[in-house]
Records
---
Amino acid sequence: MDGVMEIITGREGRRRWSTADKLRIVAETQEPGVAIRAVAARHDICESLLFTWRRQVREGVLRAASDMAMFMPVQMIGVAPTESMPSNSAPHSVAPMRSVPTSGLIEIELGNGRHVRVGSDVNLGALRRVLAALRE
């Protein structure tokens, strides 16, 4: 009896997905009427991995690079004069002077004019959620 036998071994080994690929696949699951199982099968990934990525998007852990933190200019307020800066000159500033925050406070100025002050012991997850809400 001649026949062909196909051996199905399951999913292949560990693959590396770029953030853009993960976000694209998660976006597919958010279309109306789309089954998560079908999206997972189409991309040959486990459903549990897809659910993990969806949770990470909801929590703000997985997001596009343009939404990630970036360096912003920092301005020192109330700087004491140094040898390189004469006492009669003031530091250059672009924003109006505000009251100096107490020690341990961090002030974050968002592009839309909103300000957030947090202590040095702030929970990073909570701060991430607050900043995401304020950007909207």
---
Amino acid sequence: MPMFKKSLLILLVLALAVLGGTMYGYYREQQTIALDPAVIEQAEAKRTVTVYVCGEVKKPGLVTLTEGQRVADAVNAVGGVIETADIDHINMAALLEDGMQVRVPLRIGGAEERSKSAGTGKNAEGQINLNTATEKELQELPGIGPAMSARIIEYREEHGDFQNIEDVKQVRGIGNAKFEKLKDKVTI
């Protein structure tokens, strides 16, 4: 019987060692898993975006900001806008993306002139103003449907007013052929 007790004791010690090792390994694994999300959050928090801010701002240039900031933050980082800026035609709430250009447009005409032209997108000759026309008015143009008129307005909001009628070709979906059909029917 003493031999049986020794064997049982050795078996019990081995079982406790295996159980202890298993528990220790599980504990270490849980600690590692708990630390991983914190490391990932720190890495994400340090991401930056670099944008170029130009137009009617005090100090145009490159600005590096943290990811998730808005156009207004980039404009403020270069000293803000100057008195000739047209802040009604730039989306200050848009999220910044790395490598983008933020152009603050020049205000054309006084407030009275803008309010008169904002009422209609057509001039006396019946031409449609690309800078003031509504989606419905833009759809009167040949080859411009609801999707294309929405793209024109989206482009106008992101980049400011069109400086000449050829700028409308920068809108995705408007090429030379479509431009030729509508160039005599539009103005800025």
---
Amino acid sequence: MWKIIGAGLAGYFVLGLFAVTLDQLLPGRALREAERLQARQDEAAERQARQAARAVERRIREAAREARQLDREARAAADQAEQARRDAIRQAVCRRSPSCWADHHLADAHYACRASLESLARYRSRWTTRPGERRFTRVVSVADGGHGVIIYAGDRIELQNGFGAWQPHTYACAYDPERGTGLALSMQAGRL
């Protein structure tokens, strides 16, 4: 019985080997293998084409993003240029009006003239202004139609005399807008 089973298995094995060899010898098998190989190559080519298409789409999106950024930057530069042009026009118009030009430089004159005015005190000085209040209450003159020195005056300082008493004083300061410097011109006891 074992011989029969062994012979059957041996025959089955030989038959399988013959079938495999026969499949390899027959042209249909080689054709199927060639078709499978071609299909795999086609799939690989499709995959590469899809990857290339995605890469191109990514580059297009990046280029569009960069173009939008450049457009935003160009618009911002144009807006800044327009704002600078408007500011130049406003400043030119303000220069024609002495009161506008003097008001435009008033805050700068406060800081530029402060030390110069305080240095005129023989003993000590103190300002009587509150926060946000102006030190200069008058514009005495604006030279050269707004191109030269502006003379401001006020009476918001007190100087201590030799006896320690505080006296209010009037003062005048010449402010040069081109240089941003202030020079104290006079200091006298009294009010404006």
---
Amino acid sequence: MSGADEIAGLDFASVTPEEFARIVKGLSAKEINEIARDAELRGRVLKEVFGRMERQFKPEVAGQLEALIRWKVTGQGDNPEAVYETHISKGTCTVTEGRSDAEPRVTLIMGDADFLKLVSGNSSPVTMFMMRKVKIAGDVALASGLTRYFDIPKA
């Protein structure tokens, strides 16, 4: 079974973040790109990942942080760029799909494979930035510490 088949067959509602991280860790960039080329599957994966951000947010760590984080996951082939925004304010985290008119404190731009590796705890944001796998516009210090505000599983 290919990685794309394994992801396509997932009932995301019943998969723990740890299981998802383990699955992503086992995928090659080629397999993730195969998933990304399937517009419906890519959409399901992105919605699930961003949907979990609110549940995995650690308000006790964020404290009084006020930040709008814009995520741009670059598409491939016929798939357009996906844009989501994470708004952290007064100990809460809300995620919306699409670009608002608000000015983000930081924007992170990366491909599908790098995005999945990052959010599943299988890659370091600092390493990804140094290797130019993620582009950051705005508050680089906030971007480098973003992972501490979320309970990111380790595979």
